[in-house]
Known about the structure:
The complex is a heterodimer.
Chain A: E1 4-13, E2 16-26, E3 31-35, H1 42-50, E4 57-62, E5 65-69, E6 72-73, E7 81-84, H2 96-106, H3 111-124, H4 140-152, E8 158-162, H5 170-187, E9 190-195, H6 198-204, E10 207-212, E11 215-220, H7 222-227, H8 232-237, E12 242-246, E13 249-253, E14 258-261, E15 269-279, E16 284-290, E17 297-301, E18 312-317, E19 323-325
Parallel strand pairs in A: 3-9, 3-10, 7-8, 8-9
Antiparallel strand pairs in A: 1-2, 1-4, 4-5, 5-6, 10-11, 12-13, 13-19, 14-18, 15-16, 15-18, 16-17
Chain B: H1 5-8, H2 21-47, H3 60-65, H4 69-102, H5 108-119, H6 123-134, H7 140-149, H8 161-184, H9 189-197, H10 202-231, H11 234-239, H12 248-256, H13 262-288, H14 290-293, H15 310-337, H16 354-362, H17 366-396, H18 403-411, H19 418-429, H20 440-464, H21 468-476, H22 481-510, H23 515-518, H24 526-536, H25 539-564
Helix pairs in contact in B: 2-17, 2-19, 4-5, 4-8, 4-10, 4-15, 5-8, 5-15, 6-8, 6-15, 8-10, 9-10, 10-13, 12-13, 13-19, 15-25, 16-25, 17-18, 17-20, 17-22, 17-24, 20-22, 21-22, 22-25, 24-25
Amino acid sequence: MSKLVLKNIGKSYGDFDAVKDFSLELAKGEFVSLLGPSGCGKTTTLRMIAGFMPPTSGTIEIDGQVLSSPAGVVPPEKRGMSMIFQSYAIWPNMTVGQNVGFGLEVRKLPRAEIERRVDRILEVVQLSPLKGRYPAELSGGQQQRVALARAIVVEPEVLLLDEPLSNLDANLREEMRFEIRRLHDEFKITTVYVTHDQSEAMVTSDRIVVMNKGRIEQIDPPHILYGKPKSRFVAGFIGRTNFVERDGGTYSLRPQAIGLSAVRPAANAVEADVVGRSYLGEYWDYLAKPLGETKPLRVSTGPNSLFDVGQRVWLEIDPAAMVRVEQ
Amino acid sequence: MTAVAQDYSPTRRARIGGWDSTWLLWIAIIAVLLFLVVSPFVHLVVTSFQAERTGAFTFQNYATAYGRARYVDALFNSLQLGAGAALLAGVLAVPLAWGCSRTNMPGRGFVRMLVLATFITPPYTGAVAWILLAGPNAGWLNRIFMMLTGAEAGPFNIYSFPGLVVVIALYSFPYIFIFTSAALELVSSEMEDAANILGAGAWRTMRKVTLPLAIPAILGGLIICFLEAIALFASPAMIAIPARFNVVTTQLFQFFGNPVRVEVAAAYAMPLLGVTVLLVLVQRLLTHRKSFATLTGKGGERRPIDLGAGRWAMFGYAMLVASLSVFLPYIFLIQAAFSKAWGRGFSLENITFRNFHFVLFEHATAAQSVWNSFLYAGVAATAGVIITLGVAYIVARRLVPFGGILAFLCVAPFVIPGVVLAIGFYAAYAPPPLALYGTATILILAFTTRFLPIGYVNASAAIRSVNPEMEEAVRVLGGSRLTALRRVVAPLLKRNLLGAWLLIFIPATRELSSAIFLYGPGTKVVSVMIFDMSEEGNFEYLAALALILQVLTLPLLYIGQRALGRDFMLRRNAT
Lengths: 327, 575
């Protein structure tokens, strides 16, 4: 049976639909991301799962029990969930240890048991030496770890994360997304993760829900989402792509799926001019305009393939890499 | 991790919907605000249309209230008094505010301290000090003048219209100072630099750039000052009555004297109420206008303007103002408090501690009145903080629809002058069944209502400083809203709430204008005691009592400054 089920959830404010007809089932222990640009309804969905706002239509169930419906909502404190907030929401008036132990205290665990579990989780997130410190004395990354420890230590039914890495600098962000996945692999908590950063979603998730304007565009594991985007929006939002119009349809063609060579290859090749290029260290990003076309294509090559702007080249396109997308 | 957690996880079996306790709280707060704010106001208006004994509908009260020329004159006297006092206060305050917040005037911290000293001096204490200074013949300034010039009489007479204007302006200019400083501190140096670079000197820049940007705030301060002046009871009662003219508040007091004609008083209070409501609206419009928005953004960098040698002239002006509001008044108050007879001047054999001993231990009610003031102020401040905190929380977290009404009721007393509020309380709660007239309860209720707006402004600012996610984190981990309030919100707001409490408590210990209409024999507060002593002419005892009140305030100021910063009373949300 599914752990968490969202059935036709909707949230509207007057005429405006923040979320519309959103359905999703999470298996026990599954990690699912809600991914989309700001204002797409992903945070609204998460807050409805947490119980902070009632849906205007649809239901939310855990283990088959209805927690939210337009008729009413089981309050957040009765849902047995945990949440990590964008601002971390670490309580500045409590030490690291008190922050992490709070949820256990509310659950009325014996003192010694609380201490034991707090020590154990602080070890897992590598914060043991900071147990007695106050949050003001911690770095952003350390605060983030406190938030993680505090949410995980209660072994919640469902863990919710609301853009938890958006306040960290780039290096730390990369480190923390592996950390989040590592913790998930260790504790197997059913998780919903909200982000607008596709690489965060791809590193952490079993499946990704791509959202746009309050609706679901596609739900799939990361590699399928990238390889077989269903809509123009998904293809454009996940990674970079070229859109090619052919036979009355639109096709997505990833820059990596195009080969670039100075001499004519065997088959399926198109002659083109290099009209622009940028070097990004790990790869070259070329703009090549096929002869007779007006729109250049983006082509990614290894860092050692060197072509000059203005050079005549051959583009090698694998027809299987062309994915038809809906408008 | 082990799987034991399951046993302890919060019960998810709770029913959907169910009774929400926030509604109960909401209803309770509504009831309290109806009692504190709406009911006195409604009674005030209704009473003004009721015949004295029968309670039948009538316009007679209005006919009586405005039937004599001298009653109507008192209205115009109040308007003139307000305008005069506000303008003079502006002249005193604006240069000081500019000097303190934007220039390199020496001793800026000291000047701010003196403004604070002025601010915590009750108007009646200031008025008494000025009677000692500028009473005809016996006043110290007149005696010094006669001594220096050999003239027969001194030029100063406090018992006059200009005398009253000066005394009121001297103790209400801190309002304008607070408003103007707050605005000037938001004008960035870059705006002034832009003028400088185009060739404007310091003086021209101030006149053309800085001042115009601060003008809405200055006008706002002038309006508050005007309202303060027309609502004031003590200084006019001490000065205008001997000078044989009346203002609205003294006239109201006479309607309230034996026999109490509360219906006529209510009718006569209407113009005061109307003018206040109107001007508060104007003031809100001024400070919320678009042009003022430039001042609310980030201030940017601020550097003090170099006044050159002029900085000493600036400092001199500040010292002149401080001499009139602090130095001279306190020198002669202290002299009176430690004298056998204040008129005998500074000499060793005139020094005595008897006055303090008398008011503290011998006088029948003086010591009791100090205790009453602090007790009532303490209860009122506590109640005020709790009520406004509850409302601010409900409004900020949008817990109920129409929370804005609660907020409105909390700030509404701001437009009700103290004397008018007292008449409303008298009309509402003096008659049976409550029959609260003269009780501690009615004084505490009136004080609570009077200072609700200060409480609300501070409580609401405090609540808005707490990220809602702090509470959501508690709730999602299984804590109730109450747990969140108790374990996270309250500890985070400790300082702010202490500040709000002090900002109510300190003025409440000095409150006269509402107390004078509501106190009874056993519930005299220190302000009423001081007022009585001035009527009896006991200036030595009075000075001793007034100084005791000031000294008792010092530890509170110290606590407030430790918790909230040195100028906690001189910020805009203090008024």
